[in-house]
Specification:
2 domains; globular
Length: 309
Amino acid sequence: MYAELKASSARRQFKSLLGQTNHYLITLLVGLDSVRDGTARISPTFSTSWNPKSTEVSALRSREFVIKATLSWAIDALDAYLGFCHRRPTLYQDKELSDRAGAAGQKVKERFLVLKEHAAETGGLPYECISALTELAIQWRNNVIHHFAQNQISDDVRTILLNNSRFFLATFRSLDVQELLNQFDANRPPRFKEVTSIVSCIHKFVELSDGFLIGQLNVELHLIDCIDFHLRDQTPDRIAHLYNLSSERRINSLVQTASNFGFSFSDVPSATREFVKVIEILAGLKFAEAIRFFQKESLDEKRNFLREH
């Protein structure tokens, strides 16, 4: 059986948070346009009153609020991805990387820098540019959300942004870096164009980072981690239920579990697929052997146990 992992479970969960954000933002702004021009009417289903003194002023302030909320939500989704990367089933198999991520604590900028610096050498210019704009977005969110915050970006980040203005113009549909920096430096919230570009940029940062991390993974070990993580809280009775199934249904159940974590399987080899025997071996264990497997403490111990069978 050949296994392939194109997108991690961490990225899939991230996309469930941020995937439609720009669409939602545009939908809300379309609605606010109706408020601004006075054509919006409150529905009888709303159990509240709504009678702004000036619909134009109300729409303008609401627009700013929605844009700020979008920026905050985007950074929170990024923070969630960084957390998913570190938690089981982990994408941080490298011990030094895992330790650095743990030392970063709950600070999104520090967690971001750990991944950015880890992937920077092989990410190339696009990754450097995407990372710079993402780092600015983190600082901008902090300034927007925390009233007394005055977070700045480093000179290196500013230089990357300015020196690659053409990249941003082409990649983010005419995003003007200088105008973006002017907004940031003046401690003003981003405008529509800037916040939608930031959302797209964060998507790209996660896509590039995820591809890099997957490329570094020991696929066999990650597959074991995913299956073990899924069954970690299972009682012996529930594990017994799995091992009461026929061999074919047992394999199908384990394949489905792995698929939920982003794996796909085929009997046909390819350049992007890796031959694995984890599922066949697990499915072939006797119940008592399976219990011993799940009781092993480390992933290496679990892998060695399967190799002995």
